[in-house]
Design a protein that fits this description.
disordered N terminus; Pdz3 Domain; globular; alpha+beta; five-stranded antiparallel beta sheet; 3 domains; 2-enoyl-CoA Hydratase, Chain A, domain 1
Length: 376
């Protein structure tokens, strides 16, 4: 199975396209000719002296920014930081972020981090980082400003999604550990599994958690709650594998791009495991990407009840391409579609049961338990 990431902030797709549709050669040459001509005129004739390297970088960044919020050029320094950021442990404040409608939006604070402890919520908007307006920054510049050694401070200004109140918050950086799976046996033999993100082997960890819950229960679970709230995504292959554990046949998700090797359909396979008990999936505004793939597939196949609030709405796939000089290109190469053919990009997944959860963190969980206990 080809490995794809659906990115959120520092998670990417490690696939280099082998076949890419090309524009007409005459158009390409004319465009390059105009570009080099303008670049030469600016370098020689602009009122102030300019650096050619800086001009070229700005041109590349501007070109990619015109495409979508997720396509970014990574200088060698940024590419190295990107690779370090996928290790699962780093110094920072614990925020998953994305640009949505040209606004720097918080997908979710990571549980147990400085950002979560400060009360930052999914959907809040970052206005400034220290004295720099967020609208002037690329995503990877934001990441660089937020990360740093444990014990150091960074001040951000946010606008609350719910009431529009603007607050300045100083966060003390800490070591951020991303733990993928936690689980607990609830009353009436109901299992609860929380998946924080889709890392390598996350689907297997969920399976092991369900086995342990059944062992603790002494028999098959009467129902399962899969908690994908504030899960910003990760490996698409793990999302497919997880959905496949609960679906025996049919399309799980299709990925469609311009290049032939970027268009793939993922189908369910017959399972040996017996995971046929009732299933409720919890989602909220902080559920994005791979989380939305799982929720949408289970909803379309009528395998689970989706409970919570509308999800973030990120339905595109990025490919990370390393360039010869150590730099890299993070480029949107495909979008994913639910079994129904619907794209959730910029739309999100609408739950079957809407349960707002502004203050009481356990309200959605309580409703899920009530739903499974009643046989609904």
């Amino acid at each position: 199975m080809k490995r794809l990431f659906i990115i959120a902030m520092t998670i990417g797709v490690f696939i280099t396209p082998t076949t890419v549709p090309r524009a007409d050669n005459d158009d390409v040459y004319q465009g390059l000719s105009n570009f080099t001509r303008v670049l030469d005129l600016v370098e020689r004739s602009y009122v102030d002296e300019v650096e050619l390297e800086k001009l070229t970088l700005s041109a590349i960044e501007g070109m990619l920014k015109s495409l979508d919020p997720y396509s970014v050029y990574l200088t060698p320094e940024r590419y190295k930081e990107f690779e370090e950021g996928t290790s699962g442990e780093f110094g920072g404040v614990g925020l998953e972020i994305a640009s949505k409608n040209d606004v720097l939006t918080i997908i979710t604070p990571i549980e147990g981090t400085p950002a979560a402890r400060a009360g930052i919520k999914p959907g809040d908007v970052i206005i400034r980082i220290e004295d720099t307006p967020a609208k002037e920054l690329q995503i990877f510049e934001v990441v660089k400003l937020l990360r740093g050694p444990k014990g150091t401070d960074v001040t951000i200004t946010i606008k609350r999604e719910r009431d529009g109140v603007i607050s300045k918050i100083t966060l003390t950086r800490d070591t951020i550990h991303v733990r993928s799976v936690t689980y607990e046996l609830k009353e009436r033999g109901i299992g609860y599994v929380r998946l924080n993100n889709f890392q390598d082997k996350s689907a297997g960890e969920v399976s092991r958690a369900m086995v342990r819950l059944e062992n603790e229960n002494g028999k098959q679970l009467s129902g399962l709650i899969l908690d994908l709230r504030n899960n910003p995504g990760g490996l698409l292959s793990q999302a497919v594998e997880l959905a496949d554990k609960f679906i025996d046949k049919g399309l799980i998700v299709s990925v469609k791009g311009r290049a032939p090797d970027q268009s793939i359909e993922y189908y369910a396979t017959k399972n040996d495991e017996s995971y046929n008990y009732p299933l409720v999936v919890l989602v909220n505004r902080g559920s994005a990407s791979a989380s939305e793939v799982v929720a949408e597939a289970l909803q379309d196949r009528k395998r689970a009840v989706i409970l919570g609030t509308e999800t973030f709405g990120k339905g595109s796939v990025q490919t990370i391409i390393k360039l010869e000089d150590g730099s890299g290109l993070k480029l949107t190469t495909a979008r994913f579609y639910a079994p129904s053919g619907r794209s959730i990009n910029e739309v999100g997944v609408t739950p079957d049961v809407i349960v707002e959860n502004p203050e009481d963190k356990d309200l959605q969980l309580k409703r899920a338990i009530e739903l499974l206990s009643s046989g609904g």
